[in-house]
Write a structure and sequence with these properties.
The protein is an alpha/beta fold and 405 residues long. The chain has 15 helices and twelve strands. The strands form three sheets. The protein has an eight-stranded parallel beta barrel, surrounded by six helices. A two-stranded antiparallel ribbon has the order 1-12. Bound molecules: flavin mononucleotide (FMN).
Amino acid sequence: MDGEIPRRKFLQTAGVATTAAAVALTPGRSKAEQIAEDAPQAAAVPADAKNFVVLHQIVKAGRDNLMKNNIKAWNYLIGSADSETTLRHNRQALDQVAFKPRLLHGVGKVDLSSTLLGNKMRIPVLLSGMGSVGIMDPDGGRAVARAAATFGVACGVSSEAKPGMEEIGAASPCPKLYQLYVRGDDAWLDAVAARAIKSGYTAFCFTVDGAYFSRRERDIITGGQNAGLSDAPDPYLSGMTWDRVKRFKDRHKDLHVGIKGISSGEDAELAVKAGMSVVWVSTHGGRQLDHARGTMEVLPEVVKVAKGKATIIIDSGFSRGSDAIKALAAGADIVGYGKLQGYALGAAGEAGVVRMLEILEKEMNASAANLGAKTVAQLNPSYLVKATPVNPPSLFSAFPLLDIA
Ligand SMILES: Cc1cc2nc3c(=O)[nH]c(=O)nc-3n(C[C@H](O)[C@H](O)[C@H](O)COP(=O)(O)O)c2cc1C
């Protein structure tokens, strides 16, 4: 079960749309007491998603709200595999890159608009799909897809996401990438593809980094979302091969097909050879293989073999606009955000995700302008140099000001 909680409680306790007048009183508590108790961070949390000015505020509101009201969702959202080292490698790889700006280029107004498989995007950003998104927001994948459309970006939709492929497809006109865990034979695959096409999905991506379901120890220790999962390998996921992907592509020549979970140049090359439209560099946000390399470290070898031949998406550890600019300069086409979107959902539901994208855009525009680039096309590796990270990498190392946010 997803353990969803009603939207009103989410929003009230996040301080969103929770004016004194709007709060329904619990018997025995004064209005002031109720506001104070339901929103312990009230002084720091704006009353409306529009009042979030910096990402720190969204992250803090999402964290506080989920920790207080939905600890199972929180542990599920932030949990990674085993020692959670891959999560830290993802951040470290981003922090190992510094900017080398070029000045006096008269950048003027920055325009980072872009395309994804022929679809116009306001910025080259994707909301990466999350399986049990329904435990973070009662509208689940629909809330994310609508937020993506409102702002003007694409979203991923996990095959595990509620309320399901058709409902999420119908909820939003944004470009949507289906993230499929294969759970059947070729006939089953063809049937799922037919449904995705009918539901207007832009691309069909195989999530292939889960041959075995990883051991998410945060969930296991706390009896959370993934605690009771069997260790027995799923016969289909563990049995997936390049041959099977190629056979699928041969049967669906007109469909954009992608591979999500690429972590090496070698596999990126095989994906291109198999006719993939999307090469998605990802460590699943650190949730599958522990001790994997950070995706920003993997990116250059993927760019070498796949640039211009397939759309290169990258995610895992991306938290700020400057992170996206680093990846775009290194050759990625689109940057995905997973957990950040979960914090925004926890902070203020769908409106929180829209606001998160608005702030991300401001950060990206400022980074690009101060580097000396006006468009995505102008970003290139000459703007990047190796650096020594200054913070130990962690879940929130991109947000060092949470205490005062
Ligand atoms: C809570 C959560 C659930 C996820 N569920 C899925 C899933 O069902 N299928 C999938 O392909 N990826 C899934 N992912 C991985 C994301 O699509 C994406 O690769 C990852 O979140 C990016 O890393 P980040 O969270 O550090 O931004 C999930 C990620 C999170 C955080």
